[in-house]
Amino acid sequence: MITVLENIDLRPYNTMRVGAKAAMWIEFDSLEDAPAAIETAKMATPSGKYMIMGGGSNILFCNDYSGAIVHPAVIGWEAKALGNGKMEITAGAGVEFDNLIASTCRSGLWGLENLSLIPGSVGGAAVQNAGAYGVETGDYISEIRAWDIEAEKFVVIKKESLDYGYRTSLFKKAENAGKYIVLEVSFILSAESCPKLDYGPLKDLESDSVKITPDLVRQKIVDIRNSKLPKVSDTGSAGSFFKNPVLEKGSWAEFISVMTANGIEPDSVPHFVLPDGSVKIPAAWLIDKCGWKGKTLGNAAVWSHQPLIIVNATGKASGSDIVALEKAIVEDVRSRFGITLVPEVVHV
Ligand code: EPU
What we know:
Bound molecules: uridine-diphosphate-2(N-acetylglucosaminyl) butyric acid
Structural class: alpha+beta
């Protein structure tokens, strides 16, 4: 079924809880309706402009949207045993990712537990390669079913072609903008114990004498997230606002000399050397060092327990309020450290 609504308030549909209007909202709940939903979107407004939006958890509406928003609401999932304790779970793009994770953990399936409580839809997580605590969504995806809008056909894209990387995928590549609409995502999970406990606080689980289960790891992740991150039901946010910057080898050496000149002991800079020798620095640390943690600017604020997160502090922030704070942070980090932070949140 396809539902079409006109001139809707987007506040309930974006986790930042920013008020903005969309000229048209087009929702469909079965795979087969995807082509007609896209055709409806193309005709819906004079400009023919449209965009696809899942759970609205990684988006900032800077203005009203004059086109149509297409929302895949394909829900439900099914499981297929593959043998050797492996299970293939195929979920609709509109499934709330955390509902799926709660269920797979309850069933004793390993894979998605570290991604617990990530807000948004299965489709959104698969497009952005949402990640947390040492795991990325793409790690467990085997294939994705999508409607190829340009070629006008349903396609199945196998893992090898999905081009997963840090918060990126085939779907995020500039040349593929507007090409696909993701409809169904298949994950391969395992009944055999394979916890990923490399992230600091998770290591505690290993020393406890209890048997580690997916549900136990999930509970730990839920506790960690609740202590650091705002609950989207209480405070509008879009998770990490910026990506963690990655410096090439040469830029890292330059950065270290800037640190020394700033009186910061280079050894105190948290960083992770990646396999190709480039270095990832936590944006949270850079923002923290610039004194932004817990600071408010108008209706927007930097979360006091995790400065990588910008929140709608009063519940009344507009897109421009959020952007004003974003720009102030970017400018400050650039002038102090020579690093330009890039937002992870998509601006519309
Ligand atoms: N830090 C500070 N001050 C703080 C908090 C953190 O200096 O107040 C520094 C510390 O050095 C800390 C480091 O930042 O070790 C990293 O912090 P954290 O482990 O909380 O993770 P992150 O790099 O800030 C990333 C993801 C999160 C994900 C966590 C956990 C990105 C952009 N963000 O954050 O993802 O939950 O790791 O794996 O990669 C999201 O994308 O929405 C998201 C929340």
